[in-house]
Amino acid sequence: MAAEYMRHRVAQSGLSHVVVDSGGLMRFRNEPAAPEAITVLAEHGIDLRGHRSSGISQADMRTADLVVVMAQGHLSALEFRYPQLVGRRELIRAYEHGPEPRPGAPDLDDPIGGPIEGYRECFETIRTCLDYLCTHLKHQR
């Protein structure tokens, strides 16, 4: 949900220099998004039906200016696998209260396997955070 919403916001915000990609640390490849996630984004006019899961590579990490993750465990795994990312990774909720990232942000709970309302709540947090992140990126130009 986050990557697809970010693509949507980047296009709306005129941030043509921003490239959004999505990748996971787990070994799931080419899996579709959860039906609940597809439904929630469709409620906001965003089509997630074509999404397929993918992993991240060394090349991805070499070219990324910023990697935004959902949980502290993801940050730790990235630090272990890609130590060169120091200073270029953030928790998504670091942007929950404004366009400057705040330390000590909590994890964003994954709604997978839960009711659709959990996906809706998760999306609202994602939307808030990524709207602020877009503001942050506009000021970084």
* Low confidence ranges: none
Identify the CATH class.
Answer: Alpha Beta
| Annotated CATH topology | Rossmann fold
Describe the global form: globular
Helix % is: 40-55%
Mean pLDDT: 91
- Gyration radius (Cα, Å) is 15 Å
Tally of distinct domains: 1
CATH superfamily: Response regulator
The main pleated sheet reads as:
2 strands, parallel
Which band does the percent of strand residues land in? under 5%
- Walk across the major sheet and give the strand order: 1-2
Helix/strand order, N-terminal first: HHHEHEH
Given the structure, what is the number of helices? 5
Distance between the termini: 25 Å
SS content category: mainly alpha
Give me a quick take on this structure:
43% of the residues lie in helices and 4% in strands. The protein has 141 residues and is mostly helical.
List the keywords.
2 strands; Rossmann fold; mainly alpha; 141 residues; two-stranded parallel ribbon
Q: What's the helix and strand layout?
A:
Elements: H1 2-13, H2 35-42, H3 58-63, E1 67-69, H4 72-81, E2 89-91, H5 116-139
Parallel strand pairs: 1-2
Helix pairs in contact: 1-5, 2-5
Question: Could you walk me through the main structural features you see in this protein, from its secondary elements to its overall organization?
Answer:
This protein has one domain: 3-Layer(aba) Sandwich (Rossmann fold). The chain has helices at residues 2-13, 35-42, 58-63, 72-81, 116-139, and strands at 67-69, 89-91. Helix 2 packs across helix 5. The chain is built from 5 helices and 2 strands. Strands 1-2 form a two-stranded parallel sheet. It is mainly alpha-helical.
